[in-house]
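Transcriptional regulator with XRE-family HTH domain
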Amino acid sequence: MVRERSGRVLAANLRALREKAGLSLSELARRSDIAKGTLSQLESGSGNPTLETVFSLSNALEVPVSSLLAEHGDPDAVLVRSADVEEFSGDAVDLRMLRRLDLSDATFELYDQRIRPGDKQYSDGHPGREHHIVTRGVLRLGPVDGPYELGPGDYVCFSADRPHSYEALGEETVTSVLLLEYPAGPIRAGRACSAAVRTRRA
């Protein structure tokens, strides 16, 4: 099953990254604000992490999210079937990671993203930049002190190292493509976006 396989992948990656960083379970629990028992379950492959848990681990270990979720290997051609991809859910957002791309100066993660109406998804911030293209619905997202409003076909890029949020406007689920961009090497904050288009703020 997809969940069982993704659980095994996360367990192996989490354990390897923690050991590489020289962290005990207790220290990782402190840095990520995740209970030690929960971490132990995740490393055994029996946990069921939320979107918030995965991003907390990514920040604590200072690695891209895909370092936790992706299987190793980089074949010349990649086909991803929808039924084979694990979905991670937060308060309002469902994410499915489709691909990780490692280039000379950056690492990119490609996600299929859905934002459910009725709730807001908040992020305290994480290193890198976020690129969004809305394919259906109206989405308000970006820095909490100055969000953007996007409709179908609209694009926005913003530095993700400060608090930001996502909210579907209206009654339909918003579908969009999310591209997370990290600088090569240890992840760090503070990269600005080069504006190719102008977007409207809410």
